[in-house]
Structures are given as C-alpha cells and as structure tokens.
Amino acid sequence: MPSNPLPWELHIGGDAGELDAAAWDALLAAQPQPTPFMRHAYLAALQASGSATPRTGWVPVYALLRQGGALRAACALYLKSHSRGEYVFDWAWADAYARHGLAYYPKAVLAVPFTPVPGTRLLATDDAARLTLLQALIEWAGDQELSSLHLLFGAPQDVAAARAAGLLLRHTVQFHWHNAHPDHGAPFSDFEEFLSSLAQDKRKKIRQERRRVQAAGVGFRALHGRAIGAADWDFFYRCYERTYLEHGNAPYLTRDFFARMAEHMPEAWLLFIAERGGRPIASSLIGLEGPPGGAPRVAYGRYWGALERVDCLHFEACYYQPLQWCIAQGVQRFEGGAQGEHKMARALLPVQATSAHWLAHPAFADAVERYLEREGAGVEHYLQELHARSPFRRTG
C-alpha cells in the first residue's frame, strides 16, 4: 500500500502574483540545487516587467501539485511560439515538423527564460512528488495538444525523474570554475595562488591580458546588493542594451525587470563597473546564490556590455574580476554560462548539462531519439577531448 493514499491534485495558473511566494521560495530552498533564477520574485519580475509574456512569445504557466491540501511539488513552465531565449537549440526539429506539414509550436518548456543556468526545475518534497508532477505535466501537455514538453538545464534529480518518465535526454557542455586547488582541493587563498596553479602558458596569457587593461588606465568598482544604486543600474542597462543592439537584436530583459531585481532581490546581484578617467565605460553583472543572510556559495556570469573598446576588457570584466572576488569571498563555484571553449584558458572546466524532451508524435519521437544518440556520442567525445586539455599545470 502507498505510504500516503491521498489523491494528487494538479493546479494550473498563469499569474505569478497569485502564487504564495513564501511557500514557493520555501520549497525552492529545500531543493538540492536551488538558484536565484527560480525564486518567486525573479519569475514574477519576468512577467510583470513585460520580459517573458505572451507578447514576447512566453506564456507563463505555474503548476502546483497538492496532496491532502499540502503543497508537494511546483514548477514554472512556458508555452512558446518560438525557440528563442532557450539555449538548447531545437530549430532543426521545428523545421522538420514544418516540412511534414505539422505544427511544432506551441510547445511547452520547463525553463527559466533567457537563463542557461543548470538548477532544479521541478520543485518537490521528494522524488515521488517530483516524478508525479512531471507525469501530470506530460498528460496535461497531451490534453492541450502541444507538440512537445522540454525540461531545460535540469538538476540531477530532475533528470532522474525525466528518465523514469521516459523522456529523451540531451546533453550540452558548459564551463564552470571551482574554488579548489587542483593539488589539494582547498580553496585558493588569493588570485596569485590561483594563477600559480595554472600551466605556464595560461598563467602568462592571463597576466598579459590584465596588464593591457591596466595600461589602458581602466580600474574597477565592485558593488553588491543595495550598494548598487539606481544610476549604476541605469549605466549597466545602457551597456546591456548596446551589446544586444550591436548583434542586431533587441534585449530580452526590460529596464523595469532590473528595477524589480534591485527592489526585491538586491542581495542576488554583484555589479562590476569599469572606469577610465573617472568615467564608467563597461560593466558586468553577476548573479549570486546563497542562504538567506549568509555568504554566497555560487556565482553566475550573466550579462556584460561596453561603451568603449579596450583590448582584453571583456576577459577582465567577465572572468578575472569575478574570480578574484569569488576567491576573496570564499565562493565555491563560478558558472560561466552557455558555450565558450575559450573559457578553459581561464580555468573554467567543462561540465555536462542535461535537458529532457517529450514529443507527442511517435514517429518524430523515434527520429529525435536516434538523432540524440548520435549527438550524445559526439558530446561525450568532445568532453573527453576537453578534459585532456586541462589548463592546470601538471605535477608528479
């Protein structure tokens, strides 16, 4: 007999403002791999700021699983009319559907919009509730006549539930830095000790790049939490917006989104501002995860932009300044975001990130499964090659 015979109840809603924020965040805090990007304030800000809404092709759906009135599991998912802002690319799948006269959109994604950060997607009190929620969502997606359901950048517990539910797994590669000396595993005492752990050519390159920024007369200010003022946020947004516009795209996130971050989640943000001649010229924004009132444990490289060109400024703002800060603050890990093999030269090592996929059409599901088997073998080979090219110095 099941230990809890009470029936499960799935509740579906579309307004983050109607959720119990305290209950959501308490459930998130109990997960093995929480991130600030799954907090209620973050998800609500995406919706309220106009960043992730039906107008931008993101229809928010919040699923709550209850048993006997108690909240057992929850998740945020989005109905999508495109595949932008996901960082797990399925354009070829959508094209194949179109060539066969089938509609790939709308589809559903269990993801944080515009945020390729691995972490818990299925918030749950235990593995049974997590699997039950995922199974209920698959049934719901079928009832809604959606083409597919995709769980992006899930935590290992999410992946285990997806595997048990019969979803197809897809692997990609990210690059993360760990605050652990390769010889003895203890945290680095300072940036110089970190440099000394690297191979001579990597160490020399980093020092050369940092000297070029210093020779250009560029210095940095690091601002954390409420020390980031409105003018600092305004300057950051100018940099952020310009970066997108230079690549021919409008920015995903609105200025109002960051205003809401400053108001409701200030402790989750670290801003580096590069200055030359007393004027700000560039900035990088870092996300932080840690217990309430405690020291941050994980840092996430998120956004960067510059108003002036300075050789090697990107590396200094996005890697060396954050790593130096992480070492000084005892942060355990710095995640550099999606893709970017060049990050290995800065001691961000390759890790596997996993997504899971359910497709309603049996023939397409079979075809995608065969494709993912081939792709997965290539990713595994790529990871092996990367691990053989460690940036750390070799010891006896």
Contiguous low-pLDDT stretches (5 residues minimum) are none
Helix-residue proportion:
25-40%
Structural class: alpha+beta
Strand tally is: 13
Report the sheet-strand fraction: 25-35%
Intertermini distance: 57 Å
Mean pLDDT: 96
The biggest beta sheet reads: 13 strands, mixed
Q: Using the alpha-carbon principal axes, give the shape.
A: globular
Query: How large is the count of helical segments?
Result: 11
Integer-rounded radius of gyration: 22 Å
Question: What's the assembly state of these chains?
Answer: single chain
Topology order in helix (H) and strand (E) letters: EHHEEHEEHEHEHHEHHEEEHEEH
Describe the structure.
By secondary structure, this protein is of the alpha+beta class. The protein is built from eleven helices and 13 strands. It has helices at 21-29, 40-48, 91-99, 127-143, 156-164, 191-196, 200-215, 230-246, 255-264, 313-329, 362-387; strands at 8-13, 58-67, 70-80, 107-110, 123-124, 148-151, 168-178, 218-224, 269-276, 279-289, 298-306, 333-338, 349-359. Strands 1, 2, 3, 4, 5, 6, 7, 8, 9, 10, 11, 12 and 13 form a 13-stranded mixed beta sheet that branches. Helix 4 packs across helix 5, helix 7 (200-215) packs across helix 10 and helix 8 packs antiparallel against helix 9.
